[in-house]
Amino acid sequence: MKSMLLFFGMLISLFATAQTTKKLFNGNDLTGWTVHGTEKWYAQDGELVCESGPDKQYGYLSTDKNYKNFILTLQFKQEANGNSGVFFRSQIPEGVKISGWQAEVAPMGQHTGGIYESYGRGWLVQPKPDDEKYLKFGDWNTYKIKVDGDEVTTWLNDHEMCYIKDEKIGEGVGFIALQIHEGGGIRVRWKNIEIQELK
Predict the structure, then answer these.
(1) Which one in 21, 90, 173, 188 has a CA-CA gap of 20 to 30 Å to 69?
(2) pTM > 0.85: yes or no
(3) What is the pLDDT of residue 17?
């Protein structure tokens, strides 16, 4: 009897998790997202593509909804330069100058998985040098970002990259946004963007 109750408890737990996980990108268009800047964002073959535009400036694609505590999972593939990032608890009060925190997506050796505070304190934590090897440049990578209270943890291809506990992050409010770096010649593909909100 006890084992049966345990089994049903596990089923209920799995069902509850499945119910709270939702797709942020529908694979067809940018519904639920807002473009900031002149860089290019579009859906192609079930993937979300970002690439440099004529101005070669920073660009962002933000969720229309704010998210506070969550587990975000997605896959990305870097083409060309591939310098990008995933912002969380962020805002763009005017123009395309963003305030908030970024889980880095960058070329080899440039700290993918690290946490950067935009227009603020800069790098807050970077992966250890030995962890840089977990990036598969030019191939699909699985990225997981957990933001809960004042704690943030990142994983790249199932390997924990960085953890930080920071009071200022804990006070942050805002959306999730994908970034394209300035400089031109950048293209990144994204897919399977899903979020589980935490209570």
Answers:
(1) 188
(2) yes
(3) 45
